[in-house]
Amino acid sequence: MKIFKLTLAVLLIGMPVNGQPAVVLYNPSADAAGELQQAIKQARDSNRHVLVQVGGNWCPWCLKLHGFIESHAKVDSILRADYILLRINYSPENKNTEVLASLGYPQRFGFPVLLVLDGNGKRLHTQDTGYLEKDDSYDEEKLNRFLLNWNVRAVDPRQYQ
Question: Model-level pTM?
Fold first, then answer.
């Protein structure tokens, strides 16, 4: 039943309305640089990291990742507790070239791609989401592990002394 609901959610998310996706997760006209600075400040102020998801409304796996997270309470809970989520658009309308260059060209891994930044904006990790997949979806255990392994507590060197 979970697989059916996830499949249905992914299909509905990507369902075009008048030639446009029904759900728009990525905004090609957004000020990615400004939003990134705002997310970094919010992360610093709340002692969390920034999780940057780079992709586009054209990308079925980007939409699928969104549906997967929303339909898996534990993944969603970890994400909300430990991260400030920022989606950065990559599409023919706006490739956000300068912002992505400042983040180490994560688009080389395909889409979606995830980046973990600390509260100062330092890039801690770039994650090829292909390694978080299972069959034709994502793997809950892998996503949970990824999020937990890159949260503030996990990268705090004081806990390993």
Answer: 0.86
